[in-house]
Amino acid sequence: MDPGDNGILPACRQAGATLRMTIQEDIAKPLDAEPMLVNLGPSHPAMHGTLRVVLELEGETILNAIPEIGYLHRCFEKESEVKNYTQVIPYTDRLNYLSPLMNNVGYCMAVEKMWPLEIPERVQWIRMLICELSRIMDHMVCIGTNAVDIGALTNFWYLFNPREKLTDWVEALCGARLTTTYTRIGGLMRDMPPNSKSFLRECLRDTLKAVKDTTGLLQKNRIFMDRTQGVGAISAEDAISYGFTGPCLRACGVDYDIRKAHPYYFYDDLDWDVPLGRCGDSYDRVLVRFEEMIQSCRMVEQILEKMPEGPIMTDHRDVALPAKHEVYGSIEGIIQQFKIIMHGIKPPAGEIYSYTEAANGELGFYIVSDGSDKPYRIKVRPPCFAIYQAYPELMKGELIADAVAILGGLNIVAGELDR
Amino acid sequence: MDYAVAALKTFLIFFVVINIVPLLIWLERKGSAYIQDRRGPNRAAILGVRLGGMIHSLNDVVKLLFKEDIIPSHVNKPLFIIAPMIAMFVATIALGVIPFGDPVVLGSHKPFLLQVADLDVGLLYVFAVSSLGVYGVMLAGWAANNKYSLLGGLRSAAQMVSYEVAMGLSVVGIFLMSGSLRLSDIVNQQGANLFHWNIFLQPVAFFIFLAALFAETNRLPFDLPEGESELVAGFHVEYSSMKFALFFMAEYAHIIVGSCIITTLFFGGWNIPFVSADWIKANADFVLKLLWVSLGLFSVVGGGLLCRRFKKQRYGDLRDFEPLVFGVPGVLTGFGLLGLFALFGAGLILPAWGVSIMIAALQIGVFLAKVLFFCFFFIWVRWTLPRFRYDQLMKLGWQIMLPLALVNILVTGWVVLVR
How many helices and strands, by DSSP H and E, does chain B display? Predict the structure, then answer.
């Protein structure tokens, strides 16, 4: 085959001709070179999930970046409009698939706010517990994969071994490791497994050990610091105007955590701190996540202490199925069971925006109800969506290697971004 | 006759390298697994014998040999085919000048060199050949006509050229001290005294050389040409089947060659620490007896430990007998050795040629042990450190390592002059 076919030689010849011309004319004018377009993704080892970015490169420097989203679009919002409120819960597992339990909680909390529905205390405590455990699990994946993108592979396993153990607990909790569907409107699917307290304390010990190991490997590591400090930095003002929330915002030094600012459930009763960064770069994001894991461990410890006994489902007649002895023993019971099963749960007409602090930031559900058993409209406000729009700006002028390091630090989850 | 011996030696060395490669791959997998809290490969087996996962390498060979060898239509075919060959060829020929031991003197014969060629420009030859290695990577990157591989090729060209400079300058101090480029002279000059080895006399040179060697072998933290998370697989992104395997093997062959060079230059080559060849010659009988008994004891203890692991019904199949495959022969060999020693050991007197051969065998053994340690060091580092970024790599090479190497030359020259 003629080497000229492959398009590089003509470019070289062209460049050579230009160079000769330049030398002849003795003008110090730069070479004629065109930027190279490179597809980063949708199928690329560092593009977690299926993100696609078209990069305009000069050498390895990124001149321009155009992200394209939607490769993992599964019509979550539209699909929800033809499912009843309970049937939407399994879909929420697939939003942020690193911490599905949190999405379950966020959604159910939004629907419950429509009445508003009183839910039993134990349910609230358990929901807080699974939220904090999910936060730990989410941050483990985020830091692990971020380190893998930077080339430090071992951290991934150090973080994943304790995560596996937590996943085992989740499996014991609801029968699934990822597609949890654990919450129900007005309560939970079932109570925690009996030996949870001792097992979770063991998990926390492992988690803290993993955090210690990985911070030991990364925090003072010259290469890691060079790779992440000052990379993908964003100022607090910019972060706020882009709509950053969660660890990425707190890495810029903004003290905003929904659990503190607008506490829900019993977050007020717990003793914990909001870790803050200073520079808003990838390094701070990683460290903020590490610190959040430690704080979450503290919270889990306290939650396990304070959790009361009690029912795990509300007794609200519109929502909760009656007890089986009532169904078989009384006419009211059987009618109520029939109503809920056949006609579904019908929240009052109206609209609600409910938000929780998910692992990546504010996870909001905007639900419009027309009084029927199906939501009229559901809109999700995923934290990634707001963060991802800053991504092209963050990587402009940086190198390809930085683009990958930044993406890992932002923790973009395609499932949540594209829905 | 000389030519035949040289050809035989060439073949032998090539054979040894080719066979250490799968061993290293096994070491890498198993080593990384234990570093990362995993078990590593342990499934592939022949008749239930798994050799601790070593059979996987055999599997890989078979798999790679039978995979479809894809040559994409857009590549520059001749260069595409020749690039992996260059890579593998260059990686192995540098071994030609490495001395594996002192020349063996048998009676009145000419000394038999334990190296293929004792060039008086030995080290220059090594540098000349190893810098050719860049052609394999660069041509692969260019000929594949893929943007990612082109970037990988570019990176490797820049990286290898920059680090070649620091690497070459770092060993100038050694020339100054030994007064020769001949590798056997450098080894002899270091002698058997551990504290006269160049690692203690030239520590700065050692660290520069080590870092540059990592860059030359394209291993983490300098694996930018491959940059798995950034450039997918870098220069070999379009390669498949045995062509890919050649690159893969070339990387490990590079590690072996690099370890050989480090051992030769800085760790006394084939010298046994604190035990000189003359001393062994004087106490040949004692050394032989010591070796004999310790080998026997080692076999008995090692075999015995393996046999102890034998438990029926552990797996319920052939794998149960796995420890016995090596344990029983080990114990038997050990007892055989000890028994023979008891029978004939007392009246043992080695002839002169026997002493020479024993010394040579000891030296080769020590040399290989040092080489394997450095091979493991390469693996160890790979699974611990993150990857550099392109500009940081350049900065380290030109702004830190190069001046350091120059200062090292100055200081060494001054010391040599004064002394």
Answer: 17, 0
* CB-CB under 8 Å, A404 with B390: no
Verify whether the Cβ–Cβ distance B392 to A227 is below 8 Å: yes
Burial of residue A333, with CB atoms counted within 10 A of its CB: 0-12 exposed, 13-18 middle, 19 or more buried: middle
**Does residue A243 carry a pLDDT above 80?**
yes
Chain B: residue whose CA lies nearest to A48: B229
The answer to whether residue B102 scores a pLDDT higher than 80 is no
Mutate to test the interface with B, among A5, A6, A57, A153 (most CBs of B within 10 A): A153
Averaged confidence pLDDT in chain B? 83
Residues ≥6 apart with Cβ < 8 Å to A140: A159, A160, A162, A163, A207, A210, A293
- Dihedral angle of Cα A120, A129, A364, A45, to the nearest 10 degrees: -150
Burial class (CB within 10 angstroms; exposed 0-12, middle 13-18, buried 19+) of A409: buried
For the stretch B349-394, pLDDT in tens is 777 777 788 888 888 888 888 888 888 888 888 888 888 888 888 8
CA B247/CA B237 separation, integer angstroms: 11
Burial per residue of A203-223, b for 16 or more beta-carbon CB atoms within 10 angstroms, e otherwise: bbeebeebbebbbebbeebeb
Chain B residues within 8 A of A230 when measuring between CB atoms:
none
Cβ contact, residue pair A157, B36, below 8 Å = yes
Q: Could you give the CA distance from residue A20 to residue A18 in angstroms, rounded to a whole number?
A: 5
Instruction: Note whether A45 contacts B388, CB cutoff 8 Å.
Output: no
The answer to whether the Cβ–Cβ distance between B388 and A147 falls below 8 Å is no
Q: How far apart are CA A155 and CA B35, in angstroms?
A: 10
* Residue B334, C-beta contacts closer than 8 angstroms, at least 6 positions apart: B295, B296, B297, B298, B299, B300, B301, B302, B303
Measured CA to CA, the distance from residue A410 to residue A388 in angstroms comes to 8
Q: Work out the burial of residue A372: count CB atoms within 10 Å of its CB; fewer than 13 is exposed, 13-18 middle, 19 or more buried.
A: middle
Find which of B389, B391, B396 to mutate to test the A interface (most A CBs within 10 Å of its CB): B389
Determine, for residues A227 and B231 on separate chains, whether the beta-carbon distance falls below 8 Å: no
Q: Does residue A363 contact residue A383 with C-beta atoms inside 8 Å? A: yes
Structure token pair of residue A389: 């729009």
Nearest-Cα residue of chain B relative to residue A60: B151
C-alpha distances in angstroms, A365 versus A104, A110, A248, A284, B193? Answer: 11, 6, 20, 28, 74
Residue of A nearest to B79 (CA): A3
Rounded CA separation B71/A260 (Å):
59
The A36-40 sheet, strands edge to edge: A36-40, A52-58, A61-68
Tens of pLDDT, residues A358-408: 888 899 999 999 888 889 989 999 898 888 888 888 888 888 888 888 888
The span from the CA of A387 to the CA of A141, in Å, is 18
- Which residues lie closer than 8 Å to A329 by C-beta, 6 or more apart? none
> In this structure, how many other beta carbons lie within 10 angstroms of the beta carbon of residue B165?
15
Q: What is the mean pLDDT of residues B103-131?
A: 78
φ/ψ (deg, to 5) at B231: -105, 25
Q: Is the dihedral of CA B291, B293, B296, B298 positive or negative?
A: negative
The letter for the amino acid at B244 is F
Q: Is the ipTM of this complex over 0.90?
A: no
**Residue A54 pairs with which residues in a beta bridge?**
A39, A66
> Taking CA B113 as the corner, what is the angle to CA B112 and CA B115, rounded to the nearest 5 degrees?
150
Tokens representing A327?
A: 């169904």
Q: Using CA atoms, how far apart are residues B372 and B375, in angstroms rounded to an integer?
A: 5
Strand partners for B272: B275
Listed residue (A125, A109, A128, A118) closest to A308, CA to CA: A125
Helical ranges in B267-386 per DSSP H: 277-282, 284-308, 322-344, 352-382
In terms of phi and psi (left: phi > 0; alpha: psi -120 to 50; beta: otherwise), the region of B298 is alpha
